[in-house]
């Protein structure tokens, strides 16, 4: 539910007379830029010189700086940037940008949705920005292909949908790339993890446990994957596989691989599954897959079961138990006719730990369960919670009250931790035994 309205534009840009001046500027400069070919036409410095010359021709060279600078910046954004949402992309406190047609733009900040005062001129203006995002990547949207995924130069993920599938006009959704990589200390400060949980997860990564990070949309799965990947020792060879590169690996021996969409003829696609299969021929010590959602799940499970221990991946699911069911479903999408029991045995022997993330109703993101995959009991994969979030109530400010506590259960994989020098005890990991 959206409860807030936030002004994100410099106040001067909200004034009608400034918008009229900007419109006139663009009318003067656009034909001039169309006469120029090559990279110079889209050079910010070159475009800015044309805008400043246009102001002189309009007799507005003595315009006050507090008016002139936002005016030039806004015109630049329309000509060589991302139009009205340029300001949002520059704001590091904003996590997501949602353009619901030309007249509604929302943002997510600190876990809450806010409606902004930003508007596009019309649907054509939104389409202009969509083309500016997609064309450098060799992608496009049209009536026959009305959706597309893309990535901005800074790594932000973009999804686009236009008519006829988007009934109310063109839609842009941008998940912004975090320029400053979050650390375990940051997650502890936010309450996503406790210090004990962070130490425990570090021990599990170093000890080469296969870890699945589950959670619903925008629950912090990718951020958690990023943090856990920092615990991988420097000496190991890491292959990362993603739809759109987001992982910020600090180790030196890293091979980063990214999927490729088909060309306009529908050929040439490279899927996550293709990359997982290829990565197994690259002598990886660790496989880190951004997300499993299809047939690649089976390849990932087989890799975990055949010597590639210490692998990390994420999956969309509402609980750790749902994550196991989702793994079954996605593995069956491989096209290989496996009995369900054989598949469950694969899952139970491949996975060691599930870290379940959740976005709570107050917008906060937490690791609400750290669950061990113990094995099989009959035809059921057995799970045991090591840590769990206990909600105690809701504050007057709407914030969820509660704490992340150990369950007091000793993990079955304790001997593996000890083999890597981690002595499992309550004093170090806060496990309560």
Question: How does this structure look, described?
Answer:
The chain has 433 residues and is an alpha/beta fold. The chain is 34% helix and 23% strand. The protein has helices at residues 16-34, 44-57, 65-80, 86-90, 123-134, 184-190, 195-206, 221-229, 272-279, 296-305, 320-332, 340-350, 414-419, 426-429, and strands at 4-6, 94-100, 105-109, 112-116, 147-151, 157-161, 171-175, 211-215, 238-242, 254-258, 286-289, 312-316, 353-359, 365-377, 380-394, 400-406. It has a 9-stranded mixed β-sheet, sandwiched between helices. Strands 1-4-3-2-7-6-5 form a 7-stranded mixed β-sheet, with helices on one face. A hairpin with a 5-residue loop joins strand 5 and strand 6 (157-161). Helix 1 (16-34) packs across helix 3 (65-80). The two termini are 42 Å apart. The model has no long low-confidence stretch (mean pLDDT 87).
